[in-house]
Design a protein that fits this description.
about 230 residues, two-stranded antiparallel sheet, nine-stranded antiparallel β-sheet, alpha+beta, 11 strands
Length: about 230
């Protein structure tokens, strides 16, 4: 009788172990499926901005003070006005999700470093700018405080028709997957400007270029809407 009791206990233990292993495998498989579904959803929402094509349609961009400019495909506008410095660029979203632009950071030169300003250093836009998937759109910003060093730097390089850089902070329509894209604005042979893209940094997911590309501490920019 004790022998059969032992056998029964071992059988019960074996069945329990088998059930535990099966449950574990099932949960792990479900987690993998959920993660795959999440990654698929994020991929559909993910934006990525580049300089637009030269063949893209010219866009009319208005500022809060009533100023209007026309931005050609692949180009930019940089104007020193009486009360402000106006900046605009034609961009294209080459990914499958809507891009929502949040802020920007101005460099008064051709920025070549592998680091970027921290998110808190970016100037907040007065309104969110939306760039549809696989479509052109635009960035706009203005400097309005002559007492800022950035204002004087921008006026100097624009007047001298020297290259400058604008880092744009944006994300998906859900507010995640934030990216910083670096745009370089170069003077054209005529009076216009042409835009190129040099860097992308992910803030909410791993950077494709691996470690060592972290956020650098940049001077704190004005948080005043522009």
């Amino acid at each position: 009788m004790p022998f059969w009791t032992t056998v029964s206990s071992l059988a019960t233990a074996g069945a329990t172990l088998f059930l535990a292993v099966a449950t574990f495998m099932s949960v792990r498989s479900a987690n993998r499926s959920a993660r795959a579904a999440e990654l698929s959803t994020l991929a559909r929402l993910r934006p990525l901005l580049l300089a637009s094509d030269l063949s893209d349609t010219e866009q009319k961009v208005g500022f809060i003070d009533g100023k209007w400019v026309k931005v050609p495909g692949g180009g930019a506008v940089a104007e020193i006005g009486i009360d402000a410095i106006y900046l605009a660029m034609s961009v294209r979203n080459v990914a499958s999700g809507i891009a929502v632009l949040h802020g920007w950071f101005f460099h008064a030169d051709r920025a070549l470093a592998d680091d970027h300003p921290g998110p808190d250093a970016f100037r907040r836009l007065t309104r969110d700018l939306y760039v549809p998937a696989s479509s052109p759109g635009f960035f706009q910003g203005a400097l309005r405080d002559p007492n800022e060093s950035c204002y004087g730097d921008a006026a100097r390089v624009i007047a001298a028709r020297q290259p400058f850089t604008i880092d744009v902070l944006y994300g998906d329509q859900e507010g995640g997957q934030r990216v910083i894209t670096r745009f370089t604005v170069n003077p054209r042979a005529d009076s216009g400007w042409i835009v190129s893209t040099s860097r992308h940094w992910n803030l909410d997911r791993p950077d494709p270029r691996g470690p060592g590309r972290g956020t650098a501490t940049a001077p704190q920019a004005s948080r005043r809407p522009v």
